[in-house]
Amino acid sequence: MIEALISAFVGILSGGHLLYLLMGILLGIAVGIFPGLGGTAGMSLLLPFVYGMDPVSALAMMVGLLAVISTADTFTSVMMGVPGSAGAQATVVDGFPLAKKGQAARALSAAFSASLIGGLVGAIVLSGFVVIARPIVLAFGSAELFMLAMLGLSMVGVLSGTSMAKGMAGCGLGLLIGALGPAPATGEYRLNFGLDYLMDSLPIVVVALGIFAVPEIVDLVRKKEAIARTTALGHGWLQGLKDTLRYRWIVLRCSGLGCLIGAIPGLGGSVVDWIAYGHIVQTSRDRENFGKGDIRGVIAPESANNAKEGGALVPTLLFGIPGSGGTAVFLGGLILIGVQPGIRMIETQLDLVYTVIWSLALANIIGAGICVLIARPVAKITEIRYVYLAPFMIMIIFFAAFQSTRLWGDMMTMFALGVLATYMKRFGWPRPPLLIGYVLSGGAETYLYQAVQFYGWNWSERPLAIVMAVLIAVSVYFGLKFQRQEARAARDRIASSGIAPQIAFALLIAAVGLYAIYDTWYINMLGRVMPQGAAVATVVFSCVIALGLALKGSDSRIVYDEEAVFERRQETAASLEHYLLWIAGLLIGTAIFGFVVAVTGFFLLFLRIKAQAPWPRVLLLTACAVGFLAAMSWLLVLYFPTGILQRTFALPWPLG
Question: What is the pTM of this model?
Answer without folding.
Answer: 0.74
